Amino acid sequence: EPEVTQTPSHQVTQMGQEVILRCVPISNHLYFYWYRQILGQKVEFLVSFYNNEISEKSEIFDDQFSVERPDGSNFTLKIRSTKLEDSAMYFCASRVGGGSYNEQFFGPGTRLTVL
Amino acid sequence: SQQGEEDPQALSIQEGENATMNCSYKTSINNLQWYRQNSGRGLVHLILIRSNEREKHSGRLRVTLDTSKKSSSLLITASRAADTASYFCATVGTDSWGKFQFGAGTQVVVTP
After folding, report:
1. Chain-chain contact of B103 with A48 (C-beta, under 8 angstroms)
2. Burial code of A34-54, b = ≥16 C-beta within 10 A, e = fewer?
3. Is B110:B80 a contact under the CB 8 Å cutoff?
4. How far is A102 from chain B (nearest CA, A)?
5. Does B99 contact chain A (CB < 8 Å)?
6. Do B99 and A56 touch (CB under 8 A)?
7. Does residue A91 sit at the B interface (CB-CB below 8 Å)?
């Protein structure tokens, strides 16, 4: 069964460093998402991506964040200068298409720890 | 309260009992989905209910949706210790690009 994959599973970085979180969505999916979950809190939407551009983003997704789909298979989230409060689990998700009846498939997550 | 709020926040039951948790939301939705998360792990999709549906079943799961009350419930029947997890509802609004609004979740503990 196809699945969303994410790498690495755990990333430790120093405050101020850049990190890139990688995701490989399901191959025929067209809509891509990043979410994050700070430990003990709920999952929060960061950004949605469709047709090679951001379709929607949250207040969390400021200038320090960027996304791209560099090669038609990978979908990356970059944090330019990490802060302590960026420590969280980051989830990638994808969906096959538009319409209201499509399930989002989530990856297993990348745990980011900023020291 | 925010979109997709679950209650109770925590639920402790014995194996074999039923577990019921509720989710309320504020805005119009296209669909509502329930996910399960084991501690520190990923999100596992359980069931999707569309805005024009009132009830769905999947194995031991039963989900209801009442759009007039903007609420949904998830019932797990004959619970097992392996059902111990956090359960989240996630709503997709009618004015979004399919983004989810998650609730804070219900933490369910099933003791043998």
Report:
1. no
2. bbbbeeeebbbbbbbbbeeee
3. yes
4. 8
5. yes
6. yes
7. yes
* Residue contact B35–A106, C-beta within 8 A: yes
- Nearest in space to B52 (alpha carbons), one of B76, B28, B36, B73: B28
B35 touches chain A (CB under 8 A): yes
**Strand B43-50 to strand B29-37: parallel, antiparallel, or no bridges (unpaired)?**
antiparallel
The whole-angstrom separation of Cα A18 and Cα A11 is 11
Please write the tens of the pLDDT for every residue from B55-92: 999 999 999 999 999 999 999 999 999 999 999 999 98
> Are A83 and A15 contacting, i.e. CB atoms less than 8 angstroms apart?
yes
- pLDDT of B39 reads 81
Of B103, B48, B24, B99, the C-alpha closest to A37 is B103
